[in-house]
Each structure stands twice: as structure tokens, then as C-alpha cells.
Amino acid sequence: MTVKFKDYYEVLGVERSATAEEIQARARDYLEKLEQERDAKRKELGVADDLLRVSGVNTAMLVTFGENEIKSLEDLADCATDDLVGWVERKKEKGAEPIKHKGVLDGYDVDRQGAEEMILAARILLGWINPEDLIEPEPEGEEGETAEASAETVAEPDSAEAAAGASESQPETDDGSTATTTS
């Protein structure tokens, strides 16, 4: 029995010269179809369009939200981080195994910080939180001080002290100047 050899490209049904373009076009078509199916499912579940305004949320997540009764910005804003990413319950009994409770977005690449940012974004979009009221953390220096504060605390020795070779630390007066002591 003889088996006829078929070229890989012949099996795919594409010409060699257009292989990469054809594969990319097929992939785009598939992804567009998948996105349309997810969007239709989201709408069928009653998930509001405005959830798409939340950074980090995609249509696959919207379907999952709908399956878990998160159908509006208000529903997402009402969530706690644990609702989205899950939590671990540890029993007090010795030797008891911890119990992992799944969150709504379990299986997605969303960590606690990502979930917190989604919830915060929903609250901002609803006007529950004014973004101007949020405090931006200041950049920290090496020892936890702000860079500006650490630059201000570096003191240059007074030229008279340096010339005299003062090796002892000098006490500071109430006005911040250095008091001189005699030995």
C-alpha cells in the first residue's frame, strides 16, 4: 500500500507565499467571532455596557460577572476584593486544612491589586469617590523618608567646626542652631 505525501501547506489549504498572512487572518476572524459571541452572551445575561468603561475588564469577564449577578457598575462597586479574587479560610483547630474560597474572577489573571483597581474605578465612575481626594504616595528615599526630606536633613559641617577639628556632636538649641560647648 502506498500513501501519497501531502505537503503541510496543501493540507492547510493555503499557498506557501501567503501562509503567514492567511494564518493571521484566520486567527483574527476567529477572535472577532469569539468576541461577538461573548458580547451576545453578556447582553443575554443583562450585563450593562458601562462595565466596559472599567479598566482591565474584558468581555470574557463580563460574561463571568453576569453569571455571578454582577450586572452593573453599582454591582461591581459594591464588591469587596475577596468577592472577586477569593480568600483563604484558616481553621483554628490544629492540623485543619485551610479552605480556599473561589472569587468571581478566579481563573483570570487578576490579582488583589487588579481587583481593587477595578472596584475603585467603578466607584469613581459612579461618583462615589472623587479622584482628587485620593492621596498619591510620595516617592520614598532609601530609609523610608521622602527624597525631599532626606535632602533637607543632610547637614554640612560649619567651616569653623571643620577647621577646629570638632569630633564631638554639638547639642542643638531651640532655634535649630548648634550650641558650642567648651571642654
Question: Care to describe what's here?
Answer:
The protein has 183 residues and is mostly helical. The protein has a domain at 8-130. The protein contains eight helices and two strands. Strands 1-2 form a two-stranded antiparallel ribbon.
Structure characteristics:
two-stranded antiparallel sheet
What's this entry about, in short?
This protein is mainly α and 183 residues long. The chain has a domain at 8-130. It has eight helices and two strands, in the order αααααββααα.
Distance between the termini: 111 Å
Strand order of the biggest β-sheet: 1-2
Name the shape in a single word. extended
Q: Can you count the helices?
A: 8
Helix content: 40-55%
Sheet-strand content, in percent, reads under 5%
Supply Rg: 32 Å
H/E series: HHHHHEEHHH
| Helix/sheet category | mainly alpha
How many strands in all?
2
Instruction: Give the averaged pLDDT, no decimals.
Output: 78
Q: What low-confidence regions span 5 or more consecutive residues with pLDDT below 50?
A: 146-173, 176-183
Largest sheet report: 2 strands, antiparallel
